[in-house]
Specification:
Layout (H helix, E strand, L loop, with lengths): L1 E7 L12 H9 L5 E7 L8 E5 L2 E11 L11 E4 L12 H10 L3 E4 L27 E6 H7 L4 H9 L10 H12 L5 E5 L5 E5 L2 E5 L2 H5 L2 E7 L7 H14 L2 E5 L9 E5 L4 E2 L4 E2 L5 E17 L2 E16 L3 E11 L2 E8 L2 E3 L1
Parallel strand pairs: 1-2, 2-4, 6-7, 7-8, 15-20
Antiparallel strand pairs: 1-11, 3-4, 4-5, 5-6, 9-10, 11-12, 12-19, 13-14, 13-16, 16-17, 16-18, 18-19, 18-20
């Protein structure tokens, strides 16, 4: 198995971002990201998908789309679409119809920033997901970097402070999103969690102060997806892109906040009587199952079953738990960074049936 670093949810001048695709790829090359998925608002940009190289480094850039009903007031229901390879924004007015179109096209649909409250101090409205009765989406954006920043803005002074101190922003996924994810999993649904940058590199100004809010490179050093692939990336853009998206579909990935310390090397596996599976996999409970967690360094680790903690380890880098109980098991890992406890790793589940 092979681990790659994927950063997703970013914008270019085709919508409300401020760097073109090739310059975003150049920023990724400087940070060690392996794959990008660019998702402009309500436009699928055909053409930029490719491998971009610099020296012995390369990055695979894929193009998806962030779709929402622009006529709706107030604005709600943003959806990240990957792999459809066609324009689908014409279906935006009806979320279920849009999901049906994504699935017909063979794409993936993730609910973007499901809980995204308003920030009146800077003129930002609530753009949460509200149509929870829909069926057919593959996952949700558990942790959105730009939404977390927006949620901390109680005044314009807060905006200035965090603009100049961006490493103090990220704490972890919103509790409401974690609860909703566990609720969906408890219904027997396989729902993949991803982390999104929501990168725009917005130019900001307050009086004489000017600042680019979170350059793409800053995002790429932060909230990433570490995807476990059956083989290394090759040279075929289409085949490699499909392999990455299929791993996301299966939930063979984890969300890692790489700024405090690299999360590469985390593993969560389950060994049963007949086979061993990783994140996204399923096993029968009969005969017992051994869950094993490997961490990149010694820190705090929690194992959850059906959304409830069943075991917590501290200052450990190898954690083992034996169970005969069916349930949905996932892992949360925390580290101390700049004087605060931060979410570090959020695994996708293993399903014990």
């Amino acid at each position: 198995m092979h681990e790659i670093v994927l950063n997703l949810h970013m914008h270019t001048p085709y919508s409300d971002g401020h760097l073109p695709h090739d310059q975003i790829a150049a920023a990724a090359l400087r940070t060690g990201v392996d794959v990008l998925i660019v998702t402009d608002h309500n436009v699928w940009v055909n053409g930029p998908e490719d491998y971009y190289t610099e020296g012995d480094r390369r990055v695979l850039l894929l193009v998806g789309e962030e779709i929402h009903d622009q006529a709706r007031d107030p604005q709600k229901n943003h959806m990240l679409v990957f792999g459809a390879r066609r324009e689908l924004a014409t279906f935006a007015s009806e979320p279920q119809r849009l999901l049906d179109a994504v699935n017909q096209a063979g794409g993936l649909a993730f609910l973007a920033h499901p809980f995204d409250p308003a920030a009146p101090a800077v003129g930002e409205t609530d753009i949460s997901w509200v149509n929870w009765e829909v069926q057919g989406f593959h996952g949700l954006e558990l942790w959105n970097g730009f939404s977390e920043f927006k949620g901390r803005l109680r005044s314009k002074l807060h905006a200035v402070f965090f603009a100049f101190n961006p490493t103090l922003i990220a704490q972890g996924p919103p509790p409401e999103t974690l609860r909703k994810w566990d609720e969906l999993l408890a219904q027997g649904r396989k729902v993949t969690a991803v982390g999104g940058s929501d990168a725009h590199a917005l130019p900001a100004r307050l009086g004489p102060l000017r600042k680019t809010l979170f350059p793409y490179e800053f995002h790429f050093r932060g909230i990433n997806n570490h995807v476990i692939l059956p083989r290394p990336l090759g040279s075929n853009v289409r085949e490699d892109g499909q392999m990455v998206l299929e791993a996301l579909r299966q939930g063979s990935s984890f969300v890692g906040y790489d700024l405090p310390a690299p999360t590469r090397g985390f593993r969560f596996t389950a060994q049963g009587a007949e086979k061993t599976v990783g994140m996204g996999g399923e096993l029968p409970a009969k005969g017992g199952v051994t869950l094993q967690i490997r961490l990149p360094m010694r820190t705090e680790c929690r194992l959850l079953k059906d959304g409830k903690p069943v075991k917590t380890w501290t200052k450990r880098d190898l954690c083992t738990y034996i169970t005969t109980e069916a349930g949905v098991y996932r892992v949360e890992v925390y580290v101390d960074y700049r004087g605060q406890r931060r979410g570090w790793i959020f695994s996708n589940p293993i399903y014990i049936r």
